[in-house]
Amino acid sequence: MDPVVKAAREANPLPQQQVEKQLPTLDWQLLGQQVATQGLSNQVVSEYRELLATEAAVYGLDELTLGELMIKATDVVEQTFDPTRFKVLVRQHIANREVASKSANRDEAPLTTTPEIEAGNWSDNERRLLQQVATVKPYDYLRAVKQATNSGYVSNQERQTLERLVQASGLSLAAVNILINYILVERGNATLSANFADAIANSWRRAGVQTPGEALIALREYQQRQHRPSRRTPRRVKEKLPAWAKDKQYQAPAAPTPSTQPVVDASERDALLAQLREKQADFQHQTDSQEGADS
Predict the structure, then answer these.
(1) Most buried one in 57, 160, 188, 218, CB count within 10 A?
(2) For the chain, how many structural domains are there in total?
Protein backbone atom coordinates (compact mmCIF):
# COMPACT_ATOMS: atom_id res chain seq x y z
CA MET A 1 0.00 0.00 0.00
CA ASP A 2 1.11 3.54 -0.74
CA PRO A 3 2.83 4.84 2.47
CA VAL A 4 1.07 8.20 2.14
CA VAL A 5 -2.31 6.47 1.97
CA LYS A 6 -1.37 4.25 4.89
CA ALA A 7 -0.36 7.26 7.02
CA ALA A 8 -3.56 9.11 6.15
CA ARG A 9 -5.70 6.15 7.10
CA GLU A 10 -3.90 5.60 10.39
CA ALA A 11 -4.32 9.29 11.28
CA ASN A 12 -8.03 9.36 10.41
CA PRO A 13 -9.29 5.88 9.57
CA LEU A 14 -12.24 5.58 7.19
CA PRO A 15 -14.47 2.49 7.41
CA GLN A 16 -14.01 0.13 4.47
CA GLN A 17 -17.78 0.20 3.82
CA GLN A 18 -17.61 3.97 3.33
CA VAL A 19 -14.66 3.69 0.93
CA GLU A 20 -16.49 1.13 -1.21
CA LYS A 21 -19.64 3.26 -1.09
CA GLN A 22 -17.81 6.09 -2.88
CA LEU A 23 -16.40 3.77 -5.59
CA PRO A 24 -18.47 2.52 -8.54
CA THR A 25 -20.10 -0.87 -8.20
CA LEU A 26 -18.41 -3.61 -10.21
CA ASP A 27 -19.72 -7.03 -11.04
CA TRP A 28 -17.09 -8.97 -9.13
CA GLN A 29 -18.58 -12.32 -10.09
CA LEU A 30 -18.36 -11.48 -13.79
CA LEU A 31 -14.77 -10.28 -13.37
CA GLY A 32 -13.84 -13.46 -11.49
CA GLN A 33 -15.36 -15.66 -14.18
CA GLN A 34 -13.51 -13.77 -16.89
CA VAL A 35 -10.05 -14.20 -15.34
CA ALA A 36 -10.83 -17.82 -14.38
CA THR A 37 -11.05 -18.72 -18.08
CA GLN A 38 -7.33 -17.98 -18.30
CA GLY A 39 -6.47 -20.02 -15.22
CA LEU A 40 -6.28 -17.08 -12.79
CA SER A 41 -7.80 -17.80 -9.39
CA ASN A 42 -10.83 -15.82 -8.27
CA GLN A 43 -8.94 -15.27 -5.02
CA VAL A 44 -6.70 -12.79 -6.86
CA VAL A 45 -9.76 -10.65 -7.60
CA SER A 46 -10.67 -10.62 -3.90
CA GLU A 47 -7.08 -9.85 -2.84
CA TYR A 48 -6.72 -6.88 -5.20
CA ARG A 49 -10.30 -5.70 -5.04
CA GLU A 50 -9.40 -2.25 -3.74
CA LEU A 51 -6.80 -1.70 -6.48
CA LEU A 52 -9.22 -2.82 -9.19
CA ALA A 53 -12.02 -0.61 -7.89
CA THR A 54 -9.71 2.40 -7.71
CA GLU A 55 -8.42 1.97 -11.25
CA ALA A 56 -11.96 1.50 -12.53
CA ALA A 57 -13.13 4.65 -10.72
CA VAL A 58 -10.26 6.90 -11.77
CA TYR A 59 -10.01 5.84 -15.40
CA GLY A 60 -13.52 4.60 -16.17
CA LEU A 61 -12.71 0.95 -16.81
CA ASP A 62 -15.40 -1.72 -17.04
CA GLU A 63 -15.20 -5.37 -15.97
CA LEU A 64 -14.20 -6.66 -19.41
CA THR A 65 -11.33 -4.19 -19.71
CA LEU A 66 -10.16 -4.90 -16.17
CA GLY A 67 -10.20 -8.64 -16.88
CA GLU A 68 -8.21 -8.31 -20.08
CA LEU A 69 -5.57 -6.16 -18.36
CA MET A 70 -5.39 -8.54 -15.39
CA ILE A 71 -4.76 -11.48 -17.72
CA LYS A 72 -2.01 -9.58 -19.53
CA ALA A 73 -0.41 -8.80 -16.16
CA THR A 74 -0.37 -12.47 -15.14
CA ASP A 75 2.64 -14.75 -15.49
CA VAL A 76 1.41 -17.63 -17.65
CA VAL A 77 3.82 -20.18 -16.18
CA GLU A 78 3.55 -19.27 -12.51
CA GLN A 79 -0.05 -18.06 -12.76
CA THR A 80 0.78 -15.09 -10.51
CA PHE A 81 -0.72 -11.65 -10.89
CA ASP A 82 1.69 -8.67 -11.03
CA PRO A 83 -0.09 -5.50 -9.75
CA THR A 84 2.76 -3.23 -10.88
CA ARG A 85 2.58 -4.61 -14.41
CA PHE A 86 -1.19 -4.21 -14.26
CA LYS A 87 -0.92 -0.47 -13.50
CA VAL A 88 1.52 -0.02 -16.39
CA LEU A 89 -0.95 -1.71 -18.72
CA VAL A 90 -3.73 0.56 -17.43
CA ARG A 91 -1.64 3.63 -18.35
CA GLN A 92 -1.00 2.25 -21.82
CA HIS A 93 -4.69 1.52 -22.30
CA ILE A 94 -5.62 5.07 -21.28
CA ALA A 95 -3.03 6.55 -23.63
CA ASN A 96 -4.44 4.53 -26.54
CA ARG A 97 -7.94 5.58 -25.59
CA GLU A 98 -6.92 9.24 -25.65
CA VAL A 99 -5.52 8.89 -29.16
CA ALA A 100 -8.71 7.23 -30.33
CA SER A 101 -10.90 9.90 -28.77
CA LYS A 102 -8.94 12.67 -30.50
CA SER A 103 -9.31 11.06 -33.91
CA ALA A 104 -13.05 10.42 -33.52
CA ASN A 105 -15.49 13.20 -34.31
CA ARG A 106 -18.07 12.95 -31.57
CA ASP A 107 -20.71 15.43 -30.45
CA GLU A 108 -20.46 16.84 -26.95
CA ALA A 109 -22.29 14.65 -24.45
CA PRO A 110 -25.41 16.19 -22.92
CA LEU A 111 -25.06 17.55 -19.40
CA THR A 112 -26.38 15.33 -16.64
CA THR A 113 -28.61 16.44 -13.80
CA THR A 114 -29.01 14.89 -10.35
CA PRO A 115 -31.44 15.36 -7.43
CA GLU A 116 -28.78 17.35 -5.61
CA ILE A 117 -28.47 19.72 -8.57
CA GLU A 118 -32.23 20.13 -8.88
CA ALA A 119 -32.82 20.72 -5.18
CA GLY A 120 -29.91 23.06 -4.48
CA ASN A 121 -29.84 26.85 -4.65
CA TRP A 122 -27.01 27.14 -7.18
CA SER A 123 -25.82 29.95 -9.38
CA ASP A 124 -25.74 29.31 -13.13
CA ASN A 125 -21.99 28.67 -13.06
CA GLU A 126 -22.27 26.31 -10.08
CA ARG A 127 -25.13 24.39 -11.67
CA ARG A 128 -23.23 23.95 -14.93
CA LEU A 129 -20.11 22.81 -13.06
CA LEU A 130 -22.12 20.25 -11.09
CA GLN A 131 -23.59 18.94 -14.34
CA GLN A 132 -20.15 18.70 -15.94
CA VAL A 133 -18.55 16.72 -13.10
CA ALA A 134 -21.51 14.39 -12.49
CA THR A 135 -20.50 11.54 -14.82
CA VAL A 136 -16.93 12.28 -15.96
CA LYS A 137 -14.24 10.05 -14.52
CA PRO A 138 -11.60 11.94 -12.46
CA TYR A 139 -8.71 11.15 -14.80
CA ASP A 140 -10.65 12.24 -17.89
CA TYR A 141 -11.74 15.39 -16.09
CA LEU A 142 -8.20 16.19 -14.95
CA ARG A 143 -6.86 15.67 -18.45
CA ALA A 144 -9.61 17.83 -19.99
CA VAL A 145 -9.03 20.65 -17.48
CA LYS A 146 -5.28 20.64 -18.04
CA GLN A 147 -5.81 20.82 -21.78
CA ALA A 148 -8.37 23.63 -21.46
CA THR A 149 -6.04 25.65 -19.22
CA ASN A 150 -2.86 24.92 -21.23
CA SER A 151 -1.37 23.20 -18.18
CA GLY A 152 0.40 20.40 -20.07
CA TYR A 153 -0.04 16.67 -19.60
CA VAL A 154 -1.05 14.57 -16.59
CA SER A 155 2.16 13.61 -14.79
CA ASN A 156 2.81 10.37 -12.91
CA GLN A 157 2.71 12.30 -9.63
CA GLU A 158 -0.72 13.67 -10.52
CA ARG A 159 -1.93 10.16 -11.37
CA GLN A 160 -0.79 8.92 -7.97
CA THR A 161 -2.42 11.87 -6.23
CA LEU A 162 -5.66 11.25 -8.08
CA GLU A 163 -5.67 7.55 -7.25
CA ARG A 164 -5.00 8.31 -3.58
CA LEU A 165 -7.88 10.81 -3.46
CA VAL A 166 -10.28 8.28 -4.95
CA GLN A 167 -9.03 5.46 -2.78
CA ALA A 168 -8.66 7.11 0.63
CA SER A 169 -10.45 10.47 0.82
CA GLY A 170 -14.03 9.21 1.10
CA LEU A 171 -15.12 11.77 -1.51
CA SER A 172 -17.42 10.80 -4.35
CA LEU A 173 -15.90 10.82 -7.82
CA ALA A 174 -17.78 14.01 -8.72
CA ALA A 175 -16.53 15.67 -5.53
CA VAL A 176 -12.96 14.77 -6.54
CA ASN A 177 -13.67 16.54 -9.82
CA ILE A 178 -14.82 19.62 -7.89
CA LEU A 179 -11.50 19.55 -6.03
CA ILE A 180 -9.62 19.33 -9.34
CA ASN A 181 -11.58 22.28 -10.71
CA TYR A 182 -10.85 24.38 -7.64
CA ILE A 183 -7.09 23.78 -7.71
CA LEU A 184 -6.50 24.09 -11.46
CA VAL A 185 -9.24 26.53 -12.51
CA GLU A 186 -10.22 28.64 -9.51
CA ARG A 187 -6.72 28.84 -8.02
CA GLY A 188 -4.95 28.81 -11.38
CA ASN A 189 -2.39 26.15 -10.45
CA ALA A 190 -0.73 24.25 -13.29
CA THR A 191 -0.52 20.91 -11.46
CA LEU A 192 -2.58 18.88 -9.03
CA SER A 193 -0.23 19.29 -6.09
CA ALA A 194 -0.35 16.34 -3.69
CA ASN A 195 0.10 18.44 -0.53
CA PHE A 196 -2.54 20.98 -1.52
CA ALA A 197 -5.03 18.34 -2.67
CA ASP A 198 -4.53 16.26 0.48
CA ALA A 199 -4.98 19.32 2.70
CA ILE A 200 -8.32 20.20 1.08
CA ALA A 201 -9.53 16.59 1.03
CA ASN A 202 -8.68 16.12 4.72
CA SER A 203 -10.44 19.37 5.59
CA TRP A 204 -13.56 18.28 3.70
CA ARG A 205 -13.39 14.88 5.31
CA ARG A 206 -13.41 16.40 8.81
CA ALA A 207 -16.41 18.50 7.76
CA GLY A 208 -18.26 15.43 6.48
CA VAL A 209 -18.12 16.49 2.82
CA GLN A 210 -18.79 13.67 0.33
CA THR A 211 -20.95 14.89 -2.56
CA PRO A 212 -20.04 17.52 -5.20
CA GLY A 213 -22.73 19.85 -3.88
CA GLU A 214 -21.32 19.64 -0.36
CA ALA A 215 -17.87 20.35 -1.79
CA LEU A 216 -19.16 23.48 -3.55
CA ILE A 217 -20.84 24.69 -0.37
CA ALA A 218 -17.61 24.14 1.58
CA LEU A 219 -15.70 26.20 -1.00
CA ARG A 220 -18.36 28.92 -0.95
CA GLU A 221 -18.21 29.19 2.86
CA TYR A 222 -14.42 29.26 2.77
CA GLN A 223 -14.42 32.15 0.28
CA GLN A 224 -16.95 34.05 2.41
CA ARG A 225 -14.72 33.68 5.47
CA GLN A 226 -11.75 34.96 3.49
CA HIS A 227 -13.60 38.16 2.48
CA ARG A 228 -15.24 38.77 5.85
CA PRO A 229 -13.68 41.77 7.70
CA SER A 230 -11.96 40.68 10.85
CA ARG A 231 -13.12 42.10 14.17
CA ARG A 232 -10.06 43.01 16.13
CA THR A 233 -10.11 44.57 19.58
CA PRO A 234 -8.11 47.82 19.65
CA ARG A 235 -4.82 47.29 21.35
CA ARG A 236 -4.19 49.24 24.51
CA VAL A 237 -0.99 51.20 24.40
CA LYS A 238 0.67 50.70 27.75
CA GLU A 239 2.88 53.61 28.70
CA LYS A 240 6.35 52.56 29.73
CA LEU A 241 7.20 53.85 33.19
CA PRO A 242 10.68 55.15 34.06
CA ALA A 243 12.83 53.08 36.34
CA TRP A 244 12.39 55.40 39.31
CA ALA A 245 8.59 55.04 39.10
CA LYS A 246 8.90 51.25 39.50
CA ASP A 247 11.02 51.62 42.67
CA LYS A 248 8.68 51.13 45.63
CA GLN A 249 11.20 52.76 48.04
CA TYR A 250 11.52 55.90 45.96
CA GLN A 251 10.46 59.14 47.72
CA ALA A 252 9.86 62.32 45.86
CA PRO A 253 12.01 65.29 46.98
CA ALA A 254 10.33 67.64 49.41
CA ALA A 255 9.03 70.90 48.07
CA PRO A 256 11.15 73.98 49.02
CA THR A 257 9.97 75.61 52.26
CA PRO A 258 9.54 79.37 52.63
CA SER A 259 12.50 81.29 54.13
CA THR A 260 12.50 81.48 57.97
CA GLN A 261 14.47 84.76 58.11
CA PRO A 262 12.57 87.70 59.60
CA VAL A 263 11.04 90.08 57.15
CA VAL A 264 12.71 93.62 57.16
CA ASP A 265 10.21 96.46 57.10
CA ALA A 266 10.66 99.67 55.07
CA SER A 267 11.98 101.88 57.90
CA GLU A 268 14.69 99.45 58.92
CA ARG A 269 15.67 99.06 55.31
CA ASP A 270 16.06 102.81 54.86
CA ALA A 271 18.21 103.04 58.01
CA LEU A 272 20.48 100.28 56.82
CA LEU A 273 20.87 101.97 53.44
CA ALA A 274 21.78 105.27 55.17
CA GLN A 275 24.44 103.58 57.26
CA LEU A 276 25.86 101.96 54.17
CA ARG A 277 26.07 105.33 52.39
CA GLU A 278 27.90 106.90 55.36
CA LYS A 279 30.44 104.14 55.44
CA GLN A 280 31.02 104.50 51.72
CA ALA A 281 31.49 108.30 52.12
CA ASP A 282 33.99 107.83 55.00
CA PHE A 283 35.91 105.31 52.99
CA GLN A 284 36.07 107.67 50.00
CA HIS A 285 37.24 110.57 52.21
CA GLN A 286 40.03 108.46 53.68
CA THR A 287 41.14 107.43 50.27
CA ASP A 288 41.32 111.04 49.02
CA SER A 289 43.29 112.20 52.06
CA GLN A 290 45.83 109.46 51.66
CA GLU A 291 46.39 110.33 48.02
CA GLY A 292 47.03 114.06 48.96
CA ALA A 293 49.65 113.15 51.56
CA ASP A 294 51.50 110.96 49.16
CA SER A 295 51.67 113.73 46.58
Answers:
(1) 57
(2) 2
